[in-house]
Structure formats: structure tokens, C-alpha cells
Design a protein that fits this description.
Largest sheet: 2 strands, antiparallel
Helix content: over 70%
Number of domains: 4
Number of helices: 23
Strand content: under 5%
Radius of gyration: 37 Å
Shape: elongated
Number of strands: 4
Strand order of the largest sheet: 1-2
Length: 694
């Protein structure tokens, strides 16, 4: 079953391309859409069966294919859970794509890379070692690149170039980290890497190398997770990709990056407070920055893109808290499960994984809803889509449920996961206040993170309230356009409705689950934290959105975030396209001048020009000596006879005779060699004849 889950999408992708023709009628397109839906359903069923099988046995099921190793129940079954969520997301997106992609010219290319990306994603979540994870992570990066470039517009190709560049650089960083880890502990197996790294960290030099490796791997995985400041690809890629692809990028592919960060933080540097604090700081900055950009944006899809970045920051805050709390756990003495820090660690761990699942569900719903709006309006600009949701109760319920869920409204899914993350922060802060033996900066950092956590929750409420009000409460500036929107009744197909409903249904189900599981999530303290975020969100919406983002005079939304603060364009591209080439050019000119100076110095000293040794114009020394002697004898003879000397040029004649002699020898040599060769051939043929006859 494990082999089916991982390799079935690759086989299906190959069969899809080979069997489907380049041109198809509308009826054939519908048939192939149904085939993709059935393929998604088969993958989902297999993933669910594998999930219950691995959790039921309580042990991992290893599978080795060549140099790749997979585990169905690794990391306590977390990989199987994420794999099931991925299969569920793909199945719903196939239902949604039936209508969204039916008239797309590049649907064959899209579906091929869609299936390839599904297989690569499964390989990441079920990997049993870091090399297998890296192998499928790189496949996923290249196949998902085609999602971003699918429309082939100027903006899409620009965003795809940024995405590919950051993905390739991140992949090289991960590979460097793997080399360092393997060279120091001799294994990349996820089952044993934690113990080996813990032993190596006892050596100071070993700890330094692990920090270097973890930093390299964090750069690669953090790029996919949209961590600040390597998030530059995310807003443009999410905006330019088709809505189904954007839904998968946000709901699933970003989680592969978080999955890698989790492995690095807990397995490789699980006992290091400083590393946990580093991840916590990056997660907090990502959380706040994404929330601010979401509030200040005037584009529906861009707002959802920055919302994804902010929620990934929430998840990374949970990873950082888990790393810190794991380091604070005592190595001996009090039983681990009786230590108050252990409760905080479990809260951070479970809250982080639950928020990954919740974010996947919510962003699938929101991006597919945004796709429905785009199919009818042809734009994501907030001023153009204003009022589209009026008199559309289904779209209102689905969108509002997802928006309220991710905002942390009680009785919905986001409230549960965010409350668990918040409680892990408060538990850690309380422990640090009573135990001052740890790093002095840690207590202040955790308190600051708690305040920013609540503030970022308020930013989530603010930008989701902005979208809901613009789509469902406000009217379009153009009355005729608003009338056209109000008259749209058949704005969505049944398959799209089914995908949206199935996804949104999990928002209240997960939110109500603590009541059935008897978890103390709805305490007064927990509810007060959610209430603080909601109040902050309402205030931010009233002050920032209504008074600043929304221009009352012109009656439209505007993006007030300074355009010059574009990290991707004015930092990364400026750095790699202009600054670095300029500096390298200067260095090359300096080195070139230095080499020229060294060569000139050598020419004037060691390799200075000297008179060339005497060379004979023709012949050799013997012909030269004999010819010169004969010429001198002739000169003496003419002197004795008192006659005018007439040179005979014996040296030239002897040189010619010498050349003729050696040329004749070479002719004989070649002839003799040819004769010997033919003799050998004849001898071989004779021996063969004798062997055959006898």
C-alpha cells in the first residue's frame, strides 16, 4: 500500500500523457476530468487505509526502493496524517478543477505536473531518511514550478523565475546541510538521527557543525515555508498561478517546508535553546509581516497569499516553542511526563500539527472560493470583485466559515490550534519566570512573542473582515455591474460546490472536537485570549482598513504598502543581478591586473629574453662537420693552386644524401612491417584451416 501511495501518481501521470491526445472535444475533456477525479479518489482511499494501518499497529512500516527508504508510520504517524491531508486536498482540487480548467489550453500539461507533484509530496511526507526527503523535495520544486508558469504571461514567468531560483538555491543549501550531517554522524535515518546528533552535541566542535548544517537546511526548507526574509517568491507565485494550483501551494506544499524545519529543530538540534529561539524569532517576524501585508493589500488573492505567509508564521512559532521547551525538559530526575514543561511541549507540538491541518482546510476553501469569483469576474482586484457575494448564500457561508475559522473564532478549527499554541507560550513564560537559571533573554523574548501572537491574531481578523465586507456587504462602485452580480444564480457547478462544502465542513467539526474529546480548550483564560485578538482585529479594521486602506473620496480600496519595500525586486534581484556581478567584475579586474603584473615581472627577470642557441639550417651535426671539413680542404686546394675559389656546398649535398638515405630506410621499414602483418594474417588463417580440417 505504501508503494501504491507514493508511486501511483507518477505512473498515472505517464499514462495520462501517453493516452490523451493533444486535441479533445468537450465530451472527451469531461471524461478525462472524471479520470483525474477517480485517480484522486484512489490515492485518497489508499492514504486513509495506510494511515489507519500504521496508527493501528503503532509501528512504522519500512520500505526500501533502491537508494530510497520510506516509512508509513514514522514520527509517530505524523507523516501519514499529513500525507492523508495532501491526498484529501488533491481530491477536492480535482473536483474543483473540473469546471475551472475545462477551457484551459494547457490542461494536459497542468494535469501531468499535478500528478507528478502529488507523488513527490507523498515521497516527502513518507520519507524515512533525509536523503529520500531531499530527493522528492527537489522533484516537487521543479514540478510545481510549472504551476506558477502555467499561464505563460509576463507576470507568471517572472514569478516562476523567482520561485525556481529560490527553490534551486534552497535545494543546494539543504544538500550542503545533509553532507555536513552525514560526514559527522554517518547516517541520515530519521529514526536514529536524533540520538546520534544528541551525542555529537556534547562535543563543542560537533555542536558548531550541527548549527551550520541546520542553518543550511533551514534556508532551504524555510524558503518553501515562506519564512521571512526568503518568502519573496510566495506572494507573486500565489497570485499568478491558477486557483487550483494556488490552493495546493498554500494548503500542502508549504507544509513540506514546515515539515523539514520541524525535523531540523526537534531531531537535529532538539536540545538547543538558542536554535529554538532563532526559529521562534523567524516565525514571529513572518507571522506579523504577513498579517500587516494582508491588511494593507487591495487584491483578493494577494491578501490570501500574505494570509498564508502569516499562518505559516504561526506554525513556525509552534515549532520554535517546541524546540525551546524540549531543551528545557530535564534529562533526569523528575519523570518527563510529570514535568510541567512537558505539557507545554506537547501543546506546542500538537498545536503546530493541528494548525498545519487547519490551515490546509481553510486555505483550500478560501482559494477555491477565490477561483469561483475569478471565473465569474475575471479579476482578483478587490475593487472589481466588490459586491459579488451579495445574494449568494452558499458562497457566503463557505467563505465566512473559513475566514472565521482561520481568525480563531471559538467553536471553529482555528481557535483550537491557536489556543494550544498560545497556551504553550504562556506555560513556557510561567516556567521561565520561576526558573531564572536559563538564558536571560529568553523570558523577555517569550513575553514579547505572546503579545505579538495576540496582535497577529487580530491582524488575521482584520484582513478576513475586510474581504468578507468587500465581497458580501458592500456594493460595487458601478451600479450596472452590481446588478449583473446580483442576477448571477448559476455561478458555480455542482462539482465545485461539492468540493467547497466538503472542505468547509471540517471547519466546525474540528472546532467542536474538544467538546467530545473532553479537552480544556474552552476555559475562561483561553476564551479571553481569543477575545483579545478579535477586539484587536475589529479596531485594526475600523482604523486602518476603513480610514486608510479604503479611500472614502474615491470609494475604492488601495494598496498603501510602500512599493519600494519589495524584497524580491529591490534586494534579491538587485543583489544577484547587479551588485554581485559588479563586485565580481571589480575583483576580476584586480586579479587580471595582478596576473599581468606577475607575468611582466617574470618576463623581465626569470624568463627574460636570451639569444637563441645555434640551429643548423639543414642536416645534422655529422653532415655539417663533414661538409665543412670538405669545403675547407677544397678552399685550401684552391689557395695552393692560386685559383679563384668556387664553393661546392658539400654541407647541403651531404644533408640531401642523408635525408634520402633515412627516407629509404623508412620505406623499407614500412614495407617490412606491412609484410610481417600480412604474414601474421596468413599464419592465422592457416592455423584456423588446420584446426577445421583436423
Amino acid at each position: 500500500m505504501l508503494a501504491f501511495v507514493i508511486f501511483y501518481p507518477f505512473v498515472a501521470a505517464a499514462c495520462y500523457v501517453l493516452m490523451r491526445g493533444k486535441k479533445s472535444s468537450e465530451k472527451e475533456n469531461n471524461i478525462w476530468s472524471n479520470v483525474c477525479i477517480v485517480s484522486g479518489a484512489a490515492e485518497l482511499i489508499a492514504a486513509v487505509v495506510l494511515l489507519f494501518g500504521s496508527l493501528g499497529d503503532g509501528i512504522g512500516k519500512l520500505m526500501k526502493v533502491g537508494f530510497l527508504t520510506f516509512d508509513a508510520g514514522g514520527n509517530g504517524g505524523a507523516g501519514a496524517v499529513l500525507g492523508t491531508v495532501a491526498a484529501f486536498a488533491w481530491f477536492l482540487v480535482y473536483l474543483f478543477s473540473r469546471e475551472y480548467m475545462k477551457s484551459d489550453k494547457g490542461v494536459i500539461r497542468y494535469e501531468f505536473f499535478n500528478l507528478m507533484t502529488l507523488g513527490a509530496t507523498m515521497g516527502v511526507f513518507f520519507a524515512a531518511d533525509l536523503f529520500t526527503l531531499f530527493f522528492f523535495f527537489e522533484i516537487m520544486s521543479f514540478t510545481s514550478f510549472m504551476w506558477v508558469a502555467h499561464r505563460q504571461t509576463r507576470g507568471a514567468l517572472y514569478a516562476a523565475g523567482t520561485y525556481l531560483g529560490i527553490s534551486v538555491a534552497g535545494g543546494m543549501a539543504i544538500l550542503m546541510g545533509l553532507f555536513i550531517v552525514y560526514s559527522h554522524i554517518g547516517t541520515l535515518d530519521l529514526g536514529s538521527i536524533e540520538e546520534c546528533c544528541a551525542t555529537l552535541r556534547q562535543n563543542n566542535s560537533g555542536r558548531q557543525w550541527l548549527y551550520i548544517a541546520a542553518s543550511c537546511m533551514f534556508a532551504g526548507f524555510g524558503a518553501k515555508a515562506g519564512a521571512f526574509p526568503i518568502h519573496a517568491w510566495l506572494p507573486k507565485a500565489y497570485t499568478e498561478a491558477p486557483a487550483p494550483a494556488t490552493a495546493l501551494l498554500s494548503a500542502v506544499l508549504s507544509k513540506t517546508g514546515v515539515w523539514g524545519i520541524w525535523i531540523v529543530t526537534v531531531s537535529i538540534l532538539g536540545g538547543e535553546v538558542n536554535w529554538g529561539a532563532f526559529v521562534l524569532v523567524i516565525g514571529t517576524v513572518t507571522m506579523v509581516y504577513g498579517g500587516l501585508r494582508g491588511v494593507l493589500s487591495d487584491n483578493l488573492k494577494t491578501t490570501l497569499a500574505y494570509s498564508s505567509m502569516s499562518q505559516l508564521g504561526f506554525i513556525m512559532v509552534g515549532v520554535g516553542m517546541a524546540g525551546i521547551l524540549k531543551a528545557l525538559l530535564p534529562a533526569e530526575g523528575i519523570a518527563v511526563n510529570q514535568n510541567p514543561v512537558f505539557e507545554g511541549f506537547k501543546m506546542a507540538e500538537q498545536g503546530m500539527f493541528l494548525h498545519m491541518v487547519n490551515h490546509s482546510i481553510v486555505k483550500l476553501t478560501l482559494f477555491m472560493a477565490a477561483g469561483v469569483i475569478f471565473m465569474n469576474v475575471g479579476s482578483y482586484e478587490l475593487n472589481r470583485v466588490r459586491g459579488f457575494g451579495r445574494k449568494k448564500p452558499f458562497l457566503l457561508v463557505v467563505f465566512a466559515l473559513a475566514a472565521a475559522g482561520i481568525s480563531g473564532v471559538p467553536l471553529l478549527n482555528g481557535y483550537v490550534s491557536k489556543t494550544m499554541l498560545h497556551e504553550s507560550i504562556t506555560l513556557c513564560g510561567g516556567y521561565l519566570a520561576q526558573n531564572m537559571t536559563h538564558a536571560s533573554y529568553l523570558n523577555g523574548l517569550v513575553k514579547c512573542v505572546e503579545y505579538l501572537f495576540l496582535f497577529s491574531g487580530g491582524l488575521t481578523v482584520a484582513y478576513m473582515l475586510k474581504l468578507c465586507m468587500a465581497l458580501f456587504a458592500e456594493k460595487n462602485e458601478d451600479a450596472s455591474v452590481q446588478k449583473e452580480y446580483d442576477e448571477k444564480k448559476n455561478y458555480v457547478s455542482f462539482s465545485t460546490k461539492l468540493s467547497l462544502a466538503c472542505c468547509a465542513l471540517f471547519v466546525p467539526i474540528v472546532g467542536l472536537s474538544p467538546l467530545f474529546l473532553k479537552r480544556e480548550i474552552f476555559s475562561l483564560k483561553s476564551l479571553s485570549g481569543a477575545a483579545v485578538s478579535i477586539v484587536i482585529g475589529i479596531v485594526v479594521y475600523a482604523v486602518v482598513v476603513r480610514l486608510i486602506v479604503f479611500n472614502k473620496k474615491e470609494r475604492h480600496y488601495r494598496d498603501i504598502f510602500p512599493r519600494w519595500i519589495d524584497i524580491e525586486r529591490y534586494v534579491y534581484r538587485a543583489l544577484f543581478y547587479r551588485t554581485i556581478p559588479f563586485l565580481l567584475g571589480i575583483i576580476s579586474r584586480i586579479l587580471d591586473s595582478l596576473v599581468d603584473s606577475i607575468v611582466l615581472l617574470l618576463r623581465k627577470t626569470v624568463y627574460r629574453e636570451r639569444a637563441l642557441p645555434y640551429e643548423l639550417p639543414e642536416g645534422n651535426r655529422i653532415t655539417h662537420s663533414v661538409g665543412a671539413a670538405m669545403e675547407n680542404v677544397r678552399r685550401l686546394y684552391y689557395a695552393v693552386r692560386k685559383k679563384d675559389y668556387e664553393p661546392k656546398n658539400y654541407e647541403h649535398r651531404l644533408a640531401l644524401k642523408n635525408m634520402d638515405f633515412f627516407e629509404s630506410l623508412r620505406i623499407v621499414e614500412r614495407s617490412l612491417s606491412f609484410g610481417l602483418l600480412m604474414f601474421c594474417v596468413g599464419l592465422m588463417l592457416t592455423m584456423v584451416y588446420l584446426l577445421v580440417v583436423n
